[in-house]
Description:
It is a single chain. The protein is α+β, with helices and mostly antiparallel strands. It has one domain (11-206): Alpha-Beta Plaits. Helix content is 38%, strand content 13%. It has eight helices and five strands, in the order βααββαβααβααα. The protein has helices at 28-40, 50-55, 93-113, 135-143, 145-148, 163-168, 176-185, 189-206; strands at residues 11-17, 70-78, 81-88, 125-128, 160-161. A hairpin with a 2-residue loop joins strand 2 (70-78) and strand 3. Helix 1 runs antiparallel to helix 3. The radius of gyration is 18 Å and the shape is globular. The chain starts with 10 loop residues before the first strand and ends in a 23-residue tail after the last helix.
Amino acid sequence: MRKHSFINGSYYHVYNRGVDKRDIFSDDKDVERFLLCLKLFSYKDPVGSVQIALRENVDVQRLHKKKKMISIVEYCLNPNHFHLILKQELDRGISEFMKRLLGGYTKYFNDRHKRSGSLMQGRFKSSYVERENYFEMIFSYVMWNYRVHDIPKNKKYLIRTSEQEYKTRNFHLVNPVEGRKFLKIFGGYKNFLKHSTEIISIIREERGKVSVSKDGSIKQFAPIDFHEN
């Protein structure tokens, strides 16, 4: 039983990892398939299987006109786990989206790699983001999560994160309205990066790892209005 409900218009940190901490991505093809699942399964009207969508050459750009169950605000994919920040747009949107995402990707992965059984470690985990003094930390933690971990050099090519979308303001997985809103909240990408580097440095130090920043101070922001128009 979850400690919170999913409320329309609210933000949640959603994450999961491979069963027994195993890798859930083995190469670029797996990573790109997961990213495509993120996009295709976020709409209210399902596209059917991703395989059918690919075969029928679904116009992904035209999908933007359809109603979404959730909006993707941030993401980070690591070799054996992932983190997302999602905004629920419709009733039961996050639950239905994650059911499609994890079920669809697991079937693809098992078929491709000739395995069976669970790929993920139980039900997906989630936390309510809009808590005082929590969002500024979690927003940094999610997008730069790969910097929290000491990922082996030979697996770093499997990392995908929304940081490039925020840096260039070229939003394709991230909802553009949400992306622009949070860039404004943090005062632009450079300020956001500086603040996040400090946050990640502190997290690493707390875990006994080498810092990624010489300055351990945390920049203070005004209170965040999550639902500002």
